[in-house]
Amino acid sequence: MHQIEDLDVTPAPLERKLGTAAVLPAILAVLLWCAYWLDQGLHLDLYRFGVYPRSGHGLVGIVASPFIHGDMEHVLNNSIPVLVLGTALMYFFPQLAGRVVLASWVGSGVGVWLTARASFHIGASGMVYGLAAFLFMSGVLRRQRMLMGLSLLVVFLYGGLLWGIVPIFPRISWESHFWGAAVGVAMAYFHRREPTPVHDPREVVWEEDEKEEAVPSSEGADPEPPTWRTTTTWDQRPQEKSGSDPTPS
After folding, report:
1. Band of the pLDDT at 145, cuts 50, 70, 90?
2. Average of per-residue pLDDT values in the chain
3. 3-state secondary structure string, the chain?
4. What is residue 234's predicted lDDT score, i.e. its pLDDT?
5. In CA terms, which of 138, 145, 207, 211 is 20 to 30 Å from 61?
6. pTM to 2 decimal places
7. Per the CATH hierarchy, to which homologous superfamily does domain 13-197 belong?
8. Between the CA of residue 124 and those of 17, 32, 180, 231, what are the distances in Å?
């Protein structure tokens, strides 16, 4: 009888790292959906806890607003980027991920509270813009091929985000988008020299012959092959009594 050998099914290192990096963003995306379904199922009118600029009761929205969404399309448009961009952030910048998320979360909320229109601003897109801007600018500032490729991917997938920082759509909180992007760019600049555990792969560089005047080989002899080395260079929502609608971000 043939002996059955055990097979090694251990995931590859890259798969393990990606799986680990996706855990916290996936939990956050699930929390966004849980808050939405609780709001819809129990008729909690959570929009009241959004950021309302320059008012005392609106301060709670700095913390609460990323969990509050007006409809299913709103939460879907925010939860998918949170998962994708959050995973990329955890994979490429695990030592900075917490600071970037916190700065994008709080910084966009504070900016909205100080400067935005008088309306309830809700949604997680201020944080989404912060993550996208940080990843894009980090790839450009660090001049690493892998991060620059990630930057191009961010632009390709979320290039439409650029239009969200200008006041084109009246019911969209462009202020949240603007301040989130501003915080992301600032974080990328301030941490541009902090090392990342993910580096460009080693490239093969063919080494030139040291000098032409080396001892020539005898006629008819096969030339020596070149040597090589590796190098590391390389709405329907209920309205407030005052009549103001929540402004989704």
Report:
1. confident
2. 80
3. CCCCCCCCCCCCHHHHHHHHHCHHHHHHHHHHHHHHHHHHHHCCCHHHHCECCCCCHHHHHHHHHHHCCCCHHHHHHHHHHHHHHHHHHHHHCCCCHHHHHHHHHHHHHHHHHHHCCCCEEECCHHHHHHHHHHHHHHHHHHCCHHHHHHHHHHHHHHHHHHHHHCCCCCCCCHHHHHHHHHHHHHHHHHCCCCCCCCCCCCEEEECCCCCCCCCCCCCCCCCCCCCEEEECCCCCCCCCCCCCCEEEC
4. 39
5. 138
6. 0.75
7. Rhomboid-like (1.20.1540.10)
8. 26, 9, 10, 42
Per-domain boundaries in the chain:
13-197
For residue 14, the model assigns a pLDDT of 59
Residue 23 has pLDDT above 70, yes or no: yes
